[in-house]
Every structure is written in structure tokens, then in C-alpha cells.
């Protein structure tokens, strides 16, 4: 038969429908007529009198029976309009295999004589005529091991009790003005598995009240496994009310005060008992609003994913009705049948067949405890029976049934798991008791697609069910290959029948292009039968799972209706039979091959497990090790099993898995009994077990690990590849379109004749020029701890004071040109005057931090070491520090006789020098910059006069400094950029520097910010220690500072001076803390300097805001830079280190090959600038170290430029805001 043109399945007209081959047995069965209250029929069709008394019958006849609504009210085809609308394609899948097979079309409502009504109207319709109809029975076991029917629910009671529950939910919770539950809200149902009647009453009561029920399992403790995920689902659904029974409410955990505590991760709930004695009777004029089936949510079923997260699958009312019709048609249900249900009635198949589809059925629920203790007392089923594999195994001991035809009345045996081994074992045990093979009907279902497929019952015993023997090795590669049964590495599967009536099956591949004979994920289009399902609150997941549009090989969609991914792995066989071999949640991809966790468990169980481990307590999952998945098996060990026996069993399991599945096991662990986390129904909570394994909290008693057999992708040791040199890397980057990672700041421009840089090459000349042209211009202002001016210097004052110091050096110190002088001063004006006095005398100054008076024993040796290493011929300081150096505490730390001559600058001569020294060459040494690194290494670099002038010029252009500007500086003036800003820049640029010693902030933390606000400073510089001190000391004083008039709105740039990576957390905290005082977040930035170049990057007054990127730390370990989104796993925030200074060029080079790298590659930062340091100053003159750090050349590319190696690793990132010039 040609199926190239699919039939029209969008309408329920009989003239276009495909004829369905129904089994003769199903159609021949005549339903007993319970619609007549006077006559009933026996099994032989002989009418007998009713047991209803005459008075009751008269009362029933006299009561005005409500008019039966037309049939259309129950079967509405209003969703046909939805089918005709075009759907937006959100995600297009790819088909796999043959064309979709449509076996059976859903019948119209008129054709379903026994089709179910919508749940609420059906109960309403059967209420007046079925008041005494037994609707629900619960089989329980008494103490004397006898079966007892404990709960007997009539259809009339179901209606009245559901009405009472609906009324109380809507009107008795909260107040009349503010009810807690309104139509459309979500409530959770918490009922145990031994109380189906209470659950059914509450469920139907929610449907009558138009409230969305969310059934969950009963929590046992406050910290159940997976309880937090259930609470997250309830919170996302907005659940505030929990419906439960009286017995369940008494069994919940209680606090010492008798209240139910809030479970871990759960929202605050109001527990409402639905027993009739606790409810108010609704008024006579109150009636629930029963409307037609529509796209409103009927209920939400929870689903636990592979990672342990819990999702809520919403089922609409039209989907509920349509699926009930499809189940009735597929199973051939008729009224007054008896169903034995052993499944969980709160979800999945048990909910559909035990609660929703049972319209005028006699429903019997059997618990597992009943089957375990007294399986002989199970009622004889004369209709369908719903079992799973666990229920079948429990019935195996019941081989001594009294009657040989005990199972002969069974219409069909509804088997949910579809396991062929369980079906065959059950048939072999009970075939002698009348069980027929043709009544065994496995099915396939999932929370997303509901019932996917079911095998129809048939009377033809000669037609065997479909089954196949597949190669397990081929399945791991996604290939379906038939094999022989003699081999161990085969998988025998059976069909689960045809898809549901009106559904359209399709196989969609999860990888690559469609190929023939591939193992794929089964997708079903139930939109043709009206099912509308979604995942609550997760829109993207709805589109990727529930709104899939498979594509043909030509690229077009196979239908206009969306498909639903069922999460089942399988294929469609001959005749449209569906074969399911596993689930996506149990799939493990190891080295490119796919293995099913259930198959691994079955192999482990085949190795005589009963002596060593518990059969149902084995967990199989995969963990990621070295970029690949590895298999882990965890089982509970029996207490009587010895370590030697367990080790032998574990060894045999590993051998069996290796030979059958051809995959190695990373770890096989045995834990003590009852230690694995359990689900509410008693199974192993897989995700919690995996989390315990990853955390190292599993505490196994026996472990067998074989990493050498499964971890085959160990990284090889790095080897130098001589054939791939820096030239090849550069050419490869150019070929691949990557640019060389280099950038430069602005060009310094052509120097004009009247320019200051042309006239004066040395800072001493600039100071003399300013003293002549602008003698009264204030260059420096020093503040004390109270914020008042402690001292100030104009151009002429600084010039005259420097002259007196030069005279003192030449006369008292007897120093000559080129001698080194150590300047040991606290932060202030004296340090600046002493520095320029050395320049006037031709000496080389070295700034040294003075010893701390309270910690002389630790700080004084550092001063002595710098003086010795720098070969200082003289030491200049203040009178106070001179006394400190000669004190007893100092003598205990350093011998006083080892100090060079100490000059006190508090007593200066009044003479002027005969001549001010002028360097003969700009490359001569101007000063030495000593600094102690974080590793304790003392490094001093040489700065020439040319580099010093170029440095000041670059900062002047970057920060736009001119005489009318005021800059606040709160830095230590002893090394790096802090010394240049404190002592040099004001003389060169002419701006006024407001000097704030950082030590004063220990007394007054607000001194720096108050000075910035008082002097209306636009640019300020500080250190991380100052910023941290302000953040911690002023965190609770922002309101008081604001009341004192502190205003930071004028601050344009607040630069943190450092020689390290920007501290993002500290800068962001500082910005957020003082945002209320007017500080703009974009004003805070950082600078970058090092020993070879004191300032590479510095945020200027103009330019884009500093950029922050997030990089993958795992890629950084491989010297690669991969940008990720904020909040991504393994992400590291990196902040831009300011803008490149004018006259500075940067390139990223490989530190080993010294070749240039491309963009987004991690390498060493090399810098070329006119203000680079000349080299290290060492006593022994290590020229090799100097040449390597300050005079490096690229091995390929621009080999002529001389670069300085910073020793910092970094990368360049080009953005739309900056170009190649910075």
C-alpha cells in the first residue's frame, strides 16, 4: 500500500478515516447496561430484578433529573481551528529512516460508543444514575494476612465529595476579598500510594474548581533526596496550598511545636486536609462551572531529568480529553469493566488508566505490599490489568493458584516497561493457569508525549508478536543490525505495538544528517489528535522538545504539525510497529559510542548478583574525566558478603562488561546496605548518587577502579616541534585571517621649534624655565590629616630650595657628577626638593621609603639593603629621621658605622651654586627606581634623562595636563608611576598637584575623598591599598559624608596605579559604595606598569569606557583565550588595564620561540617605548639579564625593533571602540 500521500488527519469525519482492524474479541464484547436503573443483565444476558428498593426507586423517578446535555458538550472539535493556523518554526530537526507511518486514525466522537467523557462532566452525568455503582476499590492486607476491600467508592460519592473539595478550595481558603486559590492557580496533591480514593476526590475536585493540580510524592524527611528540586518546581509554579489526606497529614514530619516544618527548598505551604469531615458542605445553589475542553492547563506532572532537575509537564484539558479518547479506542475499553492496577496512580500510565480513563469502570488498586505478602488473594481480573516489571516479579511465587484457568478471563495484560524478559518469564510461569500470549500488551510512554504506542489485544494466537535480535555492538554506533541469538553481545527487543490513534510517529536523529538504519530518538506528532503539552516556565525547552519540526532529506518539513521528542530510543519496524530499546536519560556516550545504562545493569545482574549485592539497588551513570564520559557502577553490598567474595564478583562484572559491551568501567563501588539516596517510591536517586560520588561523600566499602582500561586519551607530554617555528605560526595566523596581536598608542607627533620638548631636554631645565616665567605659580600643595594645607611650593620656591640642596651636596658631601644619593624622606615637599637638588648637583637620586618608627627591626634592614645595592655615596633625610637612624632600636638592627654620610636638609646653606649642572648626553642616568617585588626580590632599573622627559610628555598628552589643572595624588612616592606623578609631572606639565600622604588616611579615612570634593578635582590617582582602606573604613559613613557636602560628581578619572592585574571586585565595590556620592562607575579605571616600563597603559581623560571580558580558565591553561558569557562555568573576569600611552607599542610574543602571536592568543607582553628603562642596576653587572629583558628582538617578522620583555602574560582584544592605533 502506498503511503506517500499521508491521509488527512485534521478532521474527525468518517468518510476520510482509515479503517482500523479491531480485534474480534474486543468488538464482540457487549457492555452491561447500567444506564437502566430497573433492569440489569447477568453474564448470560438473562434480565434480573434490581436490588434497589421500591421507595428509593420512586424517589429517584420523582426527582427532577437534570437535562442531559447534548453530546457535543463532551466532544468538542474546537481545536480544528488551531490546526489550520500556521505554526512558527522555532527549531527544525532532521528525519531519520523511513517515512512516517500512520497506522490508525482517531475516530470521531460519534463513532466512539464507549469513549470517555471529560472527567468532570462524565462524573456529573453518571451521578444520578450510578449512585450505587462501585467505582473504586483498594485492596489491602490485614494483620491475619487476609485480603480486605478497605475502600469502596461509589460514583455518586465521587461527584459529591469532589464538589465539596472544589467549593472549599475556592471559598474557604483565605478571605472573601483575598482568596488564597483562584481558578487557574496551582495546588499540589500530596497523597500516599495506598489512598487512591482520596487522591481521586482531590484530583477531580481541582478539575471542577478549575484549579491546576500538581501531584507529588509524600516527603518522608526534611532532606529527602531530590526534595530541593521538587520545591523548586512548586515555587516556580507558584504553589501555596498542599492538599492531602488526614492520615498522610498525621504522618508528615513535625516540629517540637507540632507544626509541619518547611522542607528544604520548598515554598511556604498551607496544608489542607480533603477529608469530608473537615470540609464545609456547599450551598444548594452553588454549582461548579463546567465548560468545554480548551487549551487551559488541566494538570501538571513532574518529571525528573538526567541531571536531577525536576520539570513540570503541563497537560491541557483538550489534551486530556483527546488522550482519553485515544486510549479508549486503542484498548477497546467498555463500560462496567474491571481493571486491576498495580501502577502508581499519581502519574504516567497509572494516572491515565486508573484515574482519567476509567469512565464507569470497576477500578481495583493493588499495592506492592499486598502482592509481596499475599499474592494469592489478588482479585481475579475479568478485564484489563496494568502491571510493570516489578509487579510481575512479585507474582512469580503465586504458581499454586487453585484454578488452572485463573487468567483465562483476562482481556489484555497491560505491561508498562516493555521488557521482553519480564514478559516471557511471566508467560512461562502462568501459561498453565490460562494466560495467553496474545493478551500481553506492552506499551511505551513518556511524560512529554503521554502514551506513545501500545500493542492491541488480538484473538489470533497464531500471530506471534514482533521481536528482533540486534547487535549490541552496532547499537553503540547507532546502527540497527540483526544478529543471531547464540551470541552474548546481542539485545532481544519486542515491539510495543502501534502508535496511538491519530498520532504520527517519526525518528529524529540527534546528530548529523539523516542516514538509513540509524538508531534514533522517537518523536510523535500528537497535535493531529489535539494534544497540547508544554514544560512549565521553560519556554526554550518547550521549543526544543515539544515544538520540533523534522525535515526531509530535501530540506522541507514532513508535516505542518509540530512533533514531540518522547525521550525514547528506538526505531519503527515493519508494519509500523514501534520498537523501544532505551531512554535518552540513560544514554552514555563513551569515546564516541553510545551505551545504555539499563544494558549495563542487566549485564551486572547476569553475574550471580544475589549472593553479593541487592538486585534492585544498582546505579549506573557516567562522569566526565579528561573531556570524555566514563562509566561508574555503584551497588549496595549485602551484609553477609565478604570482601574477598565481593572482589571476585566485581572482577567478573568488569570482565563481562568488557567482553559484551566492549567498554571499560572507570569505577565499580560497593556501599553498605541502605546508604544510597532513595526516591520517594524506594528506588535509587541516580542524580543524588552521582553527586555524592563527585563530592567524594559516597563512602564505599569496596572499590575497584580500572582507569587504564577506559581512560585511553591521556595527554601526551609536551614536545618541542622544531618543524613549526614562529615563522610558520605567523604565516598560519595570516592564512587563517588572524592579525598579529600588536597595538600602539597615539603618536607623539612632530616636535615644533617652540615646543617645550625641543627647548628643554632635561627636567632641571624645565624647572629653571618655570621659575623665570611663572615664579608664583603653585606646583605642589601638601595636606595634613585634618585636610588643611601643611605646605606648598611655587616654581621659584622649589628652584631656590633645590639650589641650596645642590650647594650642600657639593660642599658638605663633597660629591661629584654621577654619584648616587639615597633620599630617605616621608611623603611630602622635602622629597621633591631633594630630588631636584640632586639634579642641580649632577647626582643620581634614589628614593627610599623611610623606616617605620614602630617597626624599626623589620623596615630598617630594607633601607640598608637598598642603600648598599644602589652604591649610594650619601644619604639625605630630615632631622627626625637622622635621630631615628642613630637610636638604640636602630643600632640593634643595623650597625650605625656602616651607614654612608648622612646629610640633614632641615639646615640648608644660604649660598647659591656657581653653576647648575647640565647633562652632556640625554642618555645619561637621571635616577634609579628601586622596588621590592611580591616575591621579595629587590630590582632597581635605570631611567635616563631622555626616558624621563618622554615619560612625562606621554602622561601629559594622555591626561591632558596643563597649568590650570589640579590633580589629587594619594600614592607612595618611592617607585614606579607613583614617584613620577608625585615628583616629576607637575614640573614638566605645570599643573598643580594636591599631595595626600597615604599614611594620613589611617587617622582620617575620608581625607582623600574630602580633598577631591573640596578642591573640585577632576582627575585623581590612588593605590589599591588606599581604595581598600576607603571601602572598609567608609562603608557605613556614606550618609554622613553626604551630609557634610562630599560630592564626587566632578571626578572624571580615578586611576588606580599598580603593577598587577586589575582587581575587579575591589574597583566594583568602590564604585557601588560611592555611587550615591556622585561617583560615576566609568570614572574608575586602572593603570599597568612594570619594571621595564613604569607605565604601559593609563586611562586618559577621553576615550571609551574600560572593557570587562570573561574568559574560559580551562582554555587559558592551553595558552588560548576563549571569550564566554558572564556567569558561565569556569569563567574568569578580566578588566582592561587602561589605554595604551602615547608613544608605546605592544606586541604579544611567544616567550619560548620569541615569535609574534595572533589575536586572542595568550603570550608575553613585549613593549617598545621611548620611556623604557635602560636596564637593571646591579652591583655585579649581569649583562645577560639586562640584554634579555631590555633588548629583545623577535625571531621572525619585525626583527629590527628592540623590545622590552615585561614578564606579564596577557592578550590583546580589538573592539569596535578602538582601532589598531590604540
From TrEMBL:
Residues 1-28 are annotated as: Disordered. It comes from the Eukaryota. Residues 767-1177 form the AMP-dependent synthetase/ligase domain. InterPro entries: AMP-bd_C_sf, AMP-dep_synth/lig_dom, ANL_N_sf, Dip2-like_dom. This is DIP2C protein.
Amino acid at each position: 500500500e502506498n503511503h506517500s500521500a499521508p491521509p488527512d488527519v485534521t478532521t474527525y469525519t468518517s468518510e476520510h478515516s482509515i479503517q482500523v482492524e479491531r480485534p474480534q474479541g474486543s468488538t464482540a464484547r457487549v457492555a452491561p447496561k447500567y444506564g437502566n436503573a430497573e433492569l440489569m443483565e447477568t453474564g448470560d444476558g438473562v434480565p434480573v430484578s434490581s436490588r434497589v428498593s421500591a421507595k428509593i426507586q420512586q424517589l429517584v423517578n420523582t426527582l427532577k433529573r437534570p437535562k442531559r446535555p447534548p453530546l457535543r458538550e463532551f466532544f468538542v472539535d474546537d481545536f480544528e481551528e488551531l490546526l489550520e493556523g500556521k505554526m512558527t518554526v522555532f527549531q527544525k530537526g532532521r528525519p531519520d529512516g523511513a517515512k512516517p507511518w500512520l497506522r490508525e486514525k482517531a475516530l470521531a466522537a460519534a463513532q466512539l460508543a464507549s469513549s470517555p467523557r471529560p472527567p468532570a462532566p462524565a462524573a456529573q452525568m453518571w451521578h444520578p444514575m450510578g449512585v450505587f455503582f462501585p467505582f473504586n476499590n483498594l485492596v489491602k492486607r490485614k494483620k491475619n494476612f487476609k485480603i480486605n476491600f478497605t475502600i469502596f467508592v461509589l460514583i455518586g460519592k465521587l461527584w459529591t465529595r469532589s464538589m465539596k473539595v472544589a467549593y472549599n478550595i475556592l471559598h474557604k481558603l483565605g478571605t472573601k476579598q483575598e482568596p488564597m486559590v483562584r481558578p487557574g492557580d496551582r495546588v499540589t496533591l500530596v497523597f500516599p500510594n495506598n489512598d487512591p480514593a482520596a487522591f481521586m476526590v482531590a484530583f477531580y475536585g481541582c478539575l471542577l474548581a478549575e484549579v491546576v493540580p500538581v501531584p507529588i510524592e509524600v516527603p518522608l524527611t526534611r532532606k529527602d533526596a531530590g526534595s530541593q528540586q521538587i520545591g523548586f518546581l512548586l515555587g516556580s509554579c507558584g504553589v501555596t496550598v498542599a492538599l492531602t489526606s488526614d492520615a498522610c497529614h498525621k504522618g508528615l514530619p513535625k516540629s517540637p511545636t507540632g507544626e509541619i516544618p518547611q522542607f528544604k527548598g520548598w515554598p511556604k505551604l498551607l496544608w489542607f486536609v480533603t477529608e469530608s469531615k473537615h470540609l464545609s458542605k456547599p450551598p444548594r445553589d452553588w454549582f461548579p462551572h463546567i465548560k468545554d475542553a480548551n487549551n487551559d492547563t488541566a494538570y501538571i506532572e513532574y518529571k525528573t531529568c538526567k541531571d536531577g532537575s525536576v520539570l513540570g509537564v503541563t497537560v491541557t484539558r483538550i489534551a486530556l480529553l483527546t488522550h482519553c479518547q485515544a486510549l479508549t479506542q486503542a484498548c477497546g475499553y467498555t463500560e462496567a469493566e474491571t481493571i486491576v492496577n498495580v501502577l502508581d496512580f499519581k502519574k504516567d500510565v497509572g494516572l491515565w488508566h486508573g484515574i482519567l480513563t476509567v469512565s464507569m469502570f470497576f477500578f481495583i488498586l493493588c499495592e506492592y505490599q499486598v502482592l509481596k505478602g499475599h499474592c494469592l488473594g489478588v482479585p481475579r481480573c475479568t478485564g484489563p490489568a496494568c502491571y510493570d516489571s516489578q509487579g510481575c516479579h512479585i507474582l512469580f511465587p503465586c504458581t499454586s493458584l487453585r484454578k488452572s484457568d485463573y487468567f483465562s478471563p483476562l482481556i489484555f495484560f497491560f505491561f508498562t516497561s516493555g521488557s521482553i524478559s519480564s514478559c516471557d518469564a511471566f508467560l512461562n510461569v502462568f501459561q498453565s493457569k490460562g494466560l495467553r500470549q496474545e493478551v500481553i500488551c506492552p506499551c511505551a510512554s513518556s511524560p512529554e508525549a503521554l502514551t506513545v504506542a501500545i500493542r492491541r489485544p488480538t484473538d489470533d494466537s497464531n500471530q506471534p508478536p514482533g521481536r528482533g535480535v540486534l547487535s549490541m555492538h552496532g547499537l553503540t554506533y547507532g546502527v540497527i543490525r540483526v544478529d543471531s541469538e547464540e551470541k552474548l553481545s546481542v539485545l532481544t527487543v519486542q515491539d510495543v505495538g502501534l502508535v496511538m490513534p491519530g498520532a504520527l510517529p517519526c525518528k529524529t536523529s540527534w546528530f548529523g544528517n539523516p542516514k538509513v538504519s540509524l538508531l534514533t530518538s522517537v518523536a510523535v506528532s500528537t497535535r493531529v489528535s489535539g494534544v497540547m503539552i508544554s514544560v512549565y516556565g521553560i519556554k526554550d525547552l518547550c521549543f526544543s522538545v515539544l515544538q520540533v519540526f523534522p525535515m526531509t532529506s530535501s530540506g522541507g518539513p514532513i508535516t505542518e504539525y509540530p512533533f514531540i521528542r518522547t525521550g525514547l530510543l528506538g526505531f519503527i519496524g515493519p508494519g509500523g510497529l514501534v520498537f523501544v530499546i532505551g531512554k535518552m536519560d540513560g544514554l552514555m556516550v563513551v569515546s564516541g559510542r553510545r551505551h545504555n545504562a539499563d544494558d549495563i545493569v542487566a549485564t551486572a545482574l547476569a553475574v550471580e548478583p544475589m549472593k553479593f549485592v541487592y538486585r534492585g539497588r544498582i546505579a549506573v551513570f557516567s562522569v566526565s574525566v579528561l573531556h570524555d564520559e566514563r562509566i561508574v557502577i555503584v551497588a549496595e553490598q549485602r551484609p553477609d558478603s565478604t570482601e574477598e567474595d565481593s572482589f571476585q564478583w566485581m572482577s567478573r562484572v568488569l570482565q563481562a562488561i568488557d567482553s559484551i559491551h566492549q567498554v571499560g568501567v572507570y569505577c565499580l563501588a560497593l556501599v553498605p546496605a541502605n546508604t544510597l539516596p532513595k526516591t520517594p517510591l524506594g528506588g535509587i536517586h541516580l542524580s543524588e548518587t552521582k553527586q555524592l560520588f563527585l563530592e567524594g561523600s559516597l563512602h564505599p566499602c569496596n572499590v575497584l577502579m580500572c582507569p587504564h582500561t577506559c581512560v585511553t586519551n591521556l595527554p601526551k607530554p609536551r614536545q618541542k616541534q622544531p618543524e613549526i617555528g614562529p615563522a610558520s605560526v605567523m604565516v598560519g595566523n595570516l592564512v587563517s585571517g588572524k592579525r598579529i596581536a600588536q597595538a600602539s598608542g597615539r603618536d607623539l607627533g612632530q616636535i615644533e621649534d617652540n615646543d617645550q620638548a625641543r627647548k628643554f631636554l632635561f627636567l632641571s631645565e624645565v624647572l629653571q624655565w618655570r621659575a623665570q616665567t611663572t615664579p608664583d605659580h603653585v606646583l605642589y600643595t601638601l595636606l595634613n590629616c585634618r585636610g588643611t594645607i601643611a605646605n606648598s611650593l611655587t616654581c621659584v620656591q622649589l628652584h631656590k630650595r633645590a639650589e641650596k640642596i645642590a650647594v650642600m651636596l657639593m660642599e658638605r658631601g663633597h660629591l661629584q657628577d654621577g654619584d648616587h644619593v639615597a633620599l630617605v624622606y616621608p611623603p611630602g615637599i622635602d622629597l621633591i626638593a631633594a630630588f631636584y637638588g640632586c639634579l642641580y648637583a649632577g647626582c643620581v637620586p634614589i628614593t627610599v621609603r623611610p623606616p617605620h618608627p614602630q617597626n624599626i627591626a623589620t623596615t630598617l634592614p630594607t633601607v640598608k639593603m637598598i642603600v648598599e645595592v644602589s652604591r649610594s655615596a650619601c644619604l639625605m633625610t630630615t632631622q627626625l629621621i637622622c635621630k631615628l637612624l642613630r637610636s638604640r632600636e636602630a643600632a640593634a638592627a643595623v650597625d650605625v658605622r656602616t651607614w654612608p654620610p648622612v646629610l640633614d636638609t632641615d639646615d640648608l646653606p644660604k649660598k647659591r651654586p656657581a653653576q647648575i649642572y647640565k647633562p652632556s648626553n640625554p642618555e645619561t642616568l637621571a635616577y634609579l627606581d628601586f622596588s621590592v617585588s611580591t616575591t621579595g626580590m629587590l630590582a632597581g632599573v635605570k631611567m635616563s634623562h631622555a626616558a624621563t622627559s618622554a615619560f612625562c610628555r606621554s602622561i601629559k598628552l594622555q591626561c591632558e595636563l596643563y597649568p590650570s589643572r589640579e590633580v589629587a595624588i594619594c600614592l607612595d612616592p618611592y617607585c614606579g608611576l607613583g614617584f613620577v606623578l608625585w615628583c616629576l609631572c607637575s614640573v614638566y606639565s605645570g599643573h598643580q598637584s594636591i599631595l595626600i600622604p597615604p599614611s594620613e588616611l589611617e587617622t582620617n579615612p575620608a581625607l582623600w575623598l574630602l580633598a577631591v570634593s573640596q578642591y573640585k578635582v577632576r582627575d585623581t590617582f590612588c593605590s589599591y591599598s588606599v581604595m581598600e582602606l576607603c571601602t572598609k573604613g567608609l562603608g557605613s559613613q556614606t550618609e554622613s559624608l553626604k551630609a557634610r557636602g562630599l560630592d564626587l560628581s566632578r571626578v572624571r578619572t580615578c586611576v588606580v596605579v599598580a603593577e598587577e592585574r586589575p582587581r575587579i571586585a575591589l574597583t566594583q565595590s568602590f564604585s557601588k559604595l560611592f555611587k550615591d556620592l556622585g561617583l560615576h562607575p566609568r570614572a574608575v579605571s586602572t593603570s599597568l606598569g612594570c619594571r621595564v616600563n613604569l607605565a604601559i597603559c593609563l586611562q586618559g581623560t577621553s576615550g571609551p569606557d574600560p572593557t570587562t571580558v570573561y574568559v574560559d580558565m580551562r582554555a587559558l591553561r592551553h595558552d588560548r583565550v576563549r571569550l564566554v558569557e558572564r556567569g558561565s562555568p569556569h569563567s574568569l573576569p578580566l578588566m582592561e588595564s587602561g589605554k595604551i600611552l602615547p608613544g608605546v607599542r605592544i606586541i604579544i610574543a611567544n616567550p619560548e620561540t620569541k615569535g609574534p602571536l595572533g589575536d586572542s592568543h595568550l603570550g608575553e607582553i613585549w613593549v617598545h617605548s621611548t620611556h623604557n628603562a635602560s636596564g637593571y642596576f646591579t652591583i655585579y653587572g649581569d649583562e645577560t639579564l639586562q640584554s634579555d629583558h631590555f633588548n629583545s628582538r623577535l625571531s621572525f617578522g619585525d626583527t629590527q625593533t628592540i623590545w622590552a620583555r615585561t614578564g606579564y602574560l596577557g592578550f590583546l582584544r580589538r573592539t569596535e571602540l578602538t582601532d589598531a592605533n590604540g
